[in-house]
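Morning run. Coffee first, then this:
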Amino acid sequence: MKVTVPEGKDDFLYNQVAERLEQQIENNTLKAGDKLISLRALSKEQGISLSTAYKAYVELENKGYVEARPKSGYFVRYKPAQRLRKQAFPQFSTAHAAIDVDEMVRQVYRTLSGEGMVRLSVSVPPVELIPVAKLNKALMEAIRQSPESCTQYEEIPGNINLRQQIARYAFNWGGNVTADDIITTHGCMEAVAFCLKAVTEPGDIVAIESPVYFGIFNVIKILGLKIFEVPSDPQDGPDIDFLEKSLQTVLIKACLFVPNFSNPTGALMPDNRKKQLVEMLAARDIPLIEDDIYGEMYFGKSRPKTCKSFDKKGLVMLCSSISKTLAPGYRVGWCIPGKFWDKVISNKITQTVSSATPTHAAIGNFFETGRYDLHMRKLRKALHTQSLRYIQAITEYFPSDTQVSRPQGGYVLWVELNTKINAFELFEAAILQNVSIAPGQIFSTDARFTNYIRISFGSPFTPHIDAGLKRLGALIKSLE
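And here it is:
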């Protein structure tokens, strides 16, 4: 049961104390089963009030690090999970060729609507974490303030207020853009498709990270392009050194990467590697399409930079949306296409002409009033806590040789199982027990990653989720 901690002027102090204790638990200085000092002793030792000491322990309890035992005090319950090691890129084998990745994806989506299903395979914000009433209010305000009640086409680049707000938010990731640099779209994937079409012709080669969200390689294939997969580490993202060597022999026309909290690994490319990537591609005049859809979902103290923030030649085309942070159904996305602005706007005119007027105006309003900032602070805190609770459950219920990613943001965990496990067969068996997961095979073009699964921690950690993870862990043990 989650305890609500009231906010006050000592928030900074209790967070400081809680973070230091987190570190001691994470590095195993404090081990599972250890008793923490009493509230009174913590208060005296740290020079804080009893109220602040209590808030610190409740914060740790909400995150699953400690548990309160009646009349006994607080005890460490968190056992650090085995982190994913730097993985070797799985080699293609003839066994993969018989597996239809597209059919796997269809099966995953077909199984989401079953009654009582524990949906660990969906990386979207659940209704419980969406400020529905405030969104409704923003939509009504947008319609009421519009002279035509949002019934007419928007100007082709998109709603001007929304673009101004996006430009303002760009400051957080080191961007220096104006509303005129931005083009709105129906979600992030449309932005990605427009950018790809702007810089490639059918038959060109596009480099992507692997593993990667299946929607990315699907849109590349639909455009008649060829894919070059770059191995990606679950911690640091795409292997830039591998890419640099490959550029000597492979005619890569464009790159498409997700540097911040990539799906499915949750990897965060370090800023120095982002800079290196941008400079390396700029020296060869190769465009970089940057999918930054998860960039605002960071768990640390500041938003990570984007590759776009290091762009000096206009070759980085940043794409994003609110589909993962606020309202997937509103279909509000955008791109900042740099020197390719004219080509992207031509693609938009040909494809959609105009973005949806009511929802884009509503999100512009939602940003302008500060509601988005407030929502994101709450969402980031909830997701961070949920990630820890899911990891703890996986550590408790899954086999001891399981390796789990430790993302610093986003929605997903990349889980490595024993090589005896076939992830798609596990998916099929788990569905029979009302648990839906995403098998690793669907995150590459040729069904690699056979012993990996992706688990989304987007849904609040409830007894229903806990029971589902417990069933899944027992199933994995039975298959080893």
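The radius of gyration is 23 Å. Good start to the day.
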